[in-house]
Design goal:
- By secondary structure, the chain is an alpha/beta fold.
- About 40% of the residues lie in helices and about 5% in strands.
Length: about 280
């Protein structure tokens, strides 16, 4: 027996490790993640350093796919002002907390840019040693790389052939994809998703009723003790007010009788002392 013994009911290799998902749902999610990479607000909100980049999505020429040296890749990133995102990854590298550091995942770090190419002519060798930088072929786009952790807005650097091949990979709303048989992009429910702009438009504001007086409802009703709060007690039992009034009157009568007795006894004592 080993130290500590064995675990109870150990995991079996025939466990159902994965959940089946429809192909249409996975393609929809991947297409949505690709679209989110072109929204600067989502990319910046995810933590990528894109303040000095001229435009998003960032598309570079086809000659980038033939780079072979890491120093050439670094020069490219500095030229397009995307090296700050790689430097952010280098400074974020730290040792993992807990037992994971002993299970082949000792360090943890942030994610850097994702380089998407169409033809590997040496580009994978040029970028593979840069921390946080990942590479993927445009025909093998992965949702785990486009939206790590389920957060949309990965900073993606496209080569021009890869960017032009997107229509062939995913198709459009009217033309089917060449790679995915019979697949077309889903048609949006509304043409303008900017709801704030729609509400503020003159057409909608012309038919909207004017806003009423502000009324804020208490989020909860305070519970009061009827044994201590007389108003709540009367609300629950109206006869309690009659009983309380009778109690007060009876108490006053008893107090009056006692006062008369005390005065009479005092007068009697004065007469006795006078004699």
């Amino acid at each position: 027996m080993t130290r500590g013994g064995r675990m109870f009911a150990p995991n079996k290799v025939w466990r159902k490790w994965h959940v089946r998902t429809n192909s249409n749902q996975k393609r929809y999610a991947t297409a949505s993640a690709v679209a989110a990479t072109g929204v600067p607000a989502l990319v910046s909100g995810r933590g990528h350093r894109i303040s000095e980049i001229e435009e998003v999505p960032l598309v570079v020429s086809a000659e980038v796919e033939s780079l072979n040296k890491t120093k050439e890749a670094i020069a490219l990133l500095k030229a397009v002002k995307a090296f700050d995102d790689v430097a952010k990854v280098s400074s974020s590298r730290s040792i993992r907390a807990g037992r994971g550091k002993m299970r082949n995942r000792r360090h943890r770090q942030r994610r850097g840019p994702l380089v998407v190419y169409a033809q590997d002519s040496g580009i994978t060798h040029a970028f593979r040693n840069l921390p946080g930088v990942e590479l993927v072929n445009v025909t093998r786009l992965n949702l785990l790389q486009l939206a790590p952790g389920g957060h949309l807005g990965r900073f993606v650097i496209w080569t021009q052939p890869a960017f032009e091949a997107l229509n062939a990979v995913f198709g459009s709303q009217t033309e089917a994809s060449e790679q995915k048989k019979g697949y077309t992009l889903p048609i949006p429910v509304i043409s303008n998703p900017d709801v704030t702009r729609l509400i503020a438009s003159s057409e909608i504001q012309a038919v909207v009723r004017p806003a009423g007086a502000p009324f804020t409802k208490r989020p909860f009703v305070q519970k009061k003790n009827p044994l201590r709060n007389s108003q709540v007690l009367v609300r629950l039992n109206p006869y309690a007010q009659v009983l309380r009034r009778a109690e007060i009157l009876g108490q006053n009568k008893r107090t009056t009788k006692k006062s008369h007795k005390k005065s009479a006894s005092k007068k009697f004592l004065d007469i006795l002392k006078a004699d």
